[in-house]
Design goal:
Strand content: under 5%
Number of strands: 0
Shape: globular
Order of helices and strands: HHH
Radius of gyration: 14 Å
Distance between the termini: 21 Å
Helix content: over 70%
Largest sheet: none
Length: about 70
C-alpha cells in the first residue's frame, strides 16, 4: 500500500530543489551531503520529538531510507 503524505508534491519538490542548490553552491561531496542530512535528522528528532519516541521514529526513518535505495 503506498504511503500518502500530508504534504504536497510541489512543496516537497520546491524544498528539495532549494536544498540541492545550497549543496551545489558549496560543492558538497556525497559524504558531506549525507553527513549534513544525518545531522539535520538528529537535530529534528532531538528538538521536536519526545525523548521516549526518538529511537522508534529514527528506526522507522532508517527503514524507509533503506527501502528507498536501489539495490
Amino acid at each position: 500500500m503506498p504511503i500518502t503524505s500530508k504534504y504536497s508534491d510541489e512543496k516537497i519538490e520546491t524544498m528539495l530543489a532549494e536544498i540541492a542548490t545550497v549543496l551545489e553552491k558549496h560543492k558538497s561531496t556525497p559524504e558531506l551531503s549525507l553527513m549534513l542530512v544525518g545531522n539535520i535528522a538528529t537535530n529534528v528528532l532531538n528538538q521536536n520529538v519526545a525523548k521516549g519516541q526518538r529511537k522508534a521514529i529514527a528506526k522507522t526513518f532508517s527503514d524507509a531510507l533503506i527501502a528507498s535505495v536501489d539495490d
